[in-house]
Write a structure and sequence with these properties.
Rossmann fold; alpha/beta
Length: 316
């Protein structure tokens, strides 16, 4: 069976939610009392990036939720003074509370998470820390600098040198001129060049896609939030890196089913990482989409949507 997609960047009813004195944006599409799916965007994107998928999932019988992680999209963009640091631990807590406070109709209800890039890492973090909330996880793809190393699947304890490196990272990013950098990138073609690197096809005529990324970057508060992200991801504890989180899942007797979807032409997170993961963790399934880059859900939505629905029918 084949499926087609309908595009709508403004999909769903939209709301603002207060969490830890922070305001974030979320949306929902679909009928009550249907299986909940939470889609989580990647770095620089927002829930609008699921423009080719939300309506399809709704028509397939799911209630689709999307949120803008703190620091992205229409959500608040706090700096280090307000949140100290933004990392996948922080965002996993945002997602877990969102599931418990907004999605769940009863304590035993579980949610399917579909993530792109950073959203996949956040979804993995939620699955490892709050497995009782998740019925299945789809990561398209799964990035983490820790996975790029040759010994990436070995979790090491921190030593005194690592602690010094963390202090250096904090000092460097606190002194770095983020405001000048973000302003320059957002007002020039550099942002389009960077976005094109994430896609295999040309995005030259995709004005809607460019606006999804450009508008949040042009907000006055974007630079301070980027600083909090750089500090957070650069100094996070090993227990929040993908190798440790995957090892946590492996030890579980009842872990959520886990699907990886990878674009064969992904230049940001090469396919060999996905292949290495399934060789190490045999309970993970990998699907490769041809002629596709780092955003398979947006670049090849027909294939992506079909892969998702076929797999979910067998695993959720």
């Amino acid at each position: 069976m084949s499926y087609s997609f309908k595009s709508d960047p403004s999909w769903g009813k939209r709301y603002l939610w207060s969490w830890r004195n922070l305001i974030y944006h979320w949306r929902v599409l679909g009928e009550e009392n249907t299986n909940p799916v939470l889609v989580i965007h990647g770095f620089g994107a927002s829930s609008e990036h699921w423009r080719h998928n939300a309506i399809f999932l709704k028509e397939a019988g799911y209630r689709v939720y999307g949120l803008d992680l703190i620091g992205f999209g229409k959500s608040e963009q706090p700096g280090p003074k307000k949140v100290n640091q933004l990392d996948n631990r922080f965002w996993s807590e945002q997602v877990a509370d969102f599931i418990k406070q907004v999605i769940q109709k009863h304590a035993s209800e579980k949610t399917i998470i579909i993530g792109n890039s950073l959203g996949s890492l956040v979804g993995l973090t939620v699955s490892a820390r709050y497995p009782n909330l998740i019925s299945a996880l789809i990561a398209a793809p799964l990035p983490d600098p820790a996975l790029m190393k040759s010994n990436s699947l070995v979790v090491k304890k921190r030593n005194w040198l690592t602690k010094i490196n963390k202090k250096i990272v904090r000092i460097f990013f606190n002194l770095f001129p983020f405001k000048l950098l973000v302003t320059f990138i957002a007002k020039t073609r550099l942002i389009d060049i960077g976005l094109q690197f994430a896609y295999f096809r040309s995005i030259k005529e995709d004005i809607a896609l460019k606006q999804i990324v450009r508008k949040p970057a042009q907000r006055e508060t974007a630079s301070r939030s980027l600083k909090a992200m750089c500090i957070g991801m650069g100094t996070r504890e090993d227990v929040y890196t993908a190798p440790f989180l995957l090892n946590c899942l492996e030890k579980m007797t009842e872990r959520p089913p886990f699907l990886l979807i990878w674009g064969r032409k992904d230049k940001l997170v090469p396919l060999y990482i996905g292949k290495r993961l399934i060789n190490r963790y045999h309970w993970i399934k990998l699907i490769i989409i041809e002629n596709t880059g780092h955003c398979p859900h947006d670049e090849s939505p027909n294939e992506f949507n079909q892969c998702v629905i076929n797999w979910l029918r067998l695993n959720s």
